[in-house]
Hints:
Blueprint: H1 2-16, H2 20-23, E1 25-28, E2 31-34, E3 39-41, E4 43-46, E5 53-60, E6 63-69, E7 74-75, E8 81-83, H3 88-91, E9 96-98, E10 107-115, E11 118-129, E12 136-142, E13 147-157, E14 162-166, E15 178-183, E16 189-195, E17 205-210, E18 216-222, H4 227-272, H5 287-296, H6 300-306, H7 308-311
Parallel strand pairs: 2-11
Antiparallel strand pairs: 1-4, 3-9, 5-6, 5-10, 6-7, 8-9, 10-11, 12-13, 13-16, 14-17, 15-16, 17-18
Helix pairs in contact: 4-5
GO cellular component, one term: external side of plasma membrane
Signal peptide: 1-21
Main location: membrane
Amino acid sequence: MASAIDILLVGIFSVMVPSTADFVTVKCQNSTGYSGQSSRLGCVVKSEYDIKIMQVFWKKGDIIVLSQKVDGGKQTEDERFQLADTNWMNSYDISLLVKDTQISDAGNYSCTADTNRGVSKASAALHIKAKYTEPDMTSKDIKDGDTVELTCVASGGYPRGTVHWFDHLNTNWTRSAKTTVTQMDDESFRLQSTFIPTDASLGPYKCVVYNSEWKEEGNKTFDTIGKNNRTDKVISGQTKNIAAGVVVIGSLIVGLLVALLIFRRRSRRALRRPSTQPMLGQCPDDPEAEAEELNSRPPPYEEVHKDPLVKSP
Length: 313
Ligand SMILES: *[C@@H]1O[C@H](CO)[C@@H](O)[C@H](O)[C@H]1NC(C)=O
Ligand SMILES: *[C@@H]1O[C@H](CO)[C@@H](O)[C@H](O)[C@H]1NC(C)=O
Ligand SMILES: *[C@@H]1O[C@H](CO)[C@@H](O)[C@H](O)[C@H]1NC(C)=O
Ligand SMILES: *[C@@H]1O[C@H](CO)[C@@H](O)[C@H](O)[C@H]1NC(C)=O
Ligand SMILES: *[C@@H]1O[C@H](CO)[C@@H](O)[C@H](O)[C@H]1NC(C)=O
């Protein structure tokens, strides 16, 4: 019996007496700030009643970054933090202003409003963006200046970005590049990408820096190889081919001459012993050798006198 009355009483009590959340609410919005500029985390106090805000606390994680009292008492570790609206006690706008935003200011904040009708709290995330510097391109000759290694560096950006490589036909060479990402003391990222173009005729090559949202932030083109020097490279390539051809043909000719020389010596030796080998049996498929052999032979009429046996058939 008593428990039923209790339940009834509790039920009536909860309907009639709303929690403090119903008196006062704080509403916040996430926002994005830019490094070096002022950022604002928007928060407002809402109430159906005519409330009085006594104090506002802004925390980042567990650390109070700003505590502002209605009588003007302000506490902050960092003067960059202040309330955006100096008339906050009347406007109920308790937004946080961060001057000269740093990348390290990014994070989750909470805002607490202490009023004469209770306390309310809300949270807001501050995202920070920092632009990357224009990429700086350097080149290094490798393999005795035959090949060039290109390095592109962009720094100071946030969040993490990427470096992509393209040739003059906009073919994506990023897969062949090696990119190192380093986070610096100020939490910004330094992107360093190295690429060795394999085909100078596809130049000029360019590196393009993209931010975390895949938007282009900067690019640099390397002109030294490619367009300007393309003809030189191609011609030197052809010269090399011609040189290689000359070497191959040259050795073939030398080989042939050597073979010819050996053959000639053999045939002469054969001539000196004509009785052992018949004349026609000596390589008839080499006309030059045959001609040579004929020339070295004594004129036929002399032979007639010397050796009548040869002439007789
Ligand atoms: C902020 O909060 C979200 C979840 O609400 C969490 O995923 C994120 O890691 C937090 N960021 C930081 C910097 O603590
Ligand atoms: C604000 O950011 C927090 C933490 O990143 C996230 O959990 C929340 O959904 C965001 N709120 C809105 C309204 O985008
Ligand atoms: C280029 O290629 C890389 C690696 O394959 C890829 O992640 C990237 O999205 C490509 N970039 C563009 C702009 O298509
Ligand atoms: C590359 O950078 C130049 C300025 O350096 C800019 O004018 C151009 O729009 C950028 N984009 C492309 C795709 O080349
Ligand atoms: C061609 O490349 C050489 C280095 O290999 C460089 O010194 C020269 O300036 C380049 N020429 C042009 C027109 O860019």
